[in-house]
Amino acid sequence: SKIVSYELKSYLCIMKKWEQYFEDAGEAFEEEKFKECIKFANKAITAGCELNMVYVIRGMSYHALKKWKLAIHDLGRIVARDIIDTEELIDVKVDLNCMVGICYYELNLFGKAIKIFNLTIKADPENAEAWLKRGICYANLNYPKHALRDFNQAEKLENRSIELYGMRGDIEMEKKNFDKGWQDYMMCAELF
């Protein structure tokens, strides 16, 4: 009938519109034009796009722009969904989960960050960044033993960073382990 035909045409027109916005958002993201990506992602969502990927690229854009709460909102909604189809998607969810942890860390919400990093490490014990950031959270909450354990694990996983050696050096110095602390400070200086 004419009504069904009109509704179908209307639906297809709307779908084409959000598909174009989504495509534009993806291109802007690839070009690292994060503000533009967010603008197109918002238009796609407003036009009816419900693809998970639109929230991923918008959330990652917020993350790149250091808009931590907005990143948590978008990335957290994807991580919380139970959509595990392939190994690749599992890896993506683990990475997004780690990004959510980093957002909480950047907001100084260390307890929440630790909980997220725990999930990340459980899913991917080789995720050096999660070990490092969780160690920093523990250090900020004054749990030096936990922090040292995580820093040592991050180092084993090849995460050699100024953050790791600087913070671990501070903890070792506070514990009066001057040789270890000095070694870490020297590594920190080498990386600088």
Give a verbal description of the structure:
- With 192 residues, the chain is mostly helical.
- The chain has helices spanning 2-30, 34-46, 52-64, 68-80, 87-106, 110-123, 128-140, 144-156, 162-174, 178-191.
- It starts with a helix and ends with a helix.
- The longest helix is centred in the N-terminal third of the chain and has 29 residues, at 2-30.
Looking at this protein, list some descriptive labels:
mainly alpha, 10 helices
Summarize the structure.
This protein has 192 residues and is mainly alpha-helical. It has 10 helices and no strands. 81% of the residues lie in helices and 0% in strands.
Classify the helix fraction into a percent range: over 70%
Low-confidence stretches at least 5 residues in length (pLDDT < 50)?
none
Q: Determine Rg (CA atoms, Å).
A: 21 Å
* DSSP, total strands: 0
Our count of helices gives 10
Kindly report how far apart the N and C termini lie: 71 Å
Mean pLDDT score? 88
Q: Tell me the strand percentage band.
A: under 5%
- The helix/strand order is HHHHHHHHHH
Class inferred from helices and paired strands: mainly alpha
Query: Shape from CA axes?
Result: elongated
Summarize the biggest pleated sheet.
none
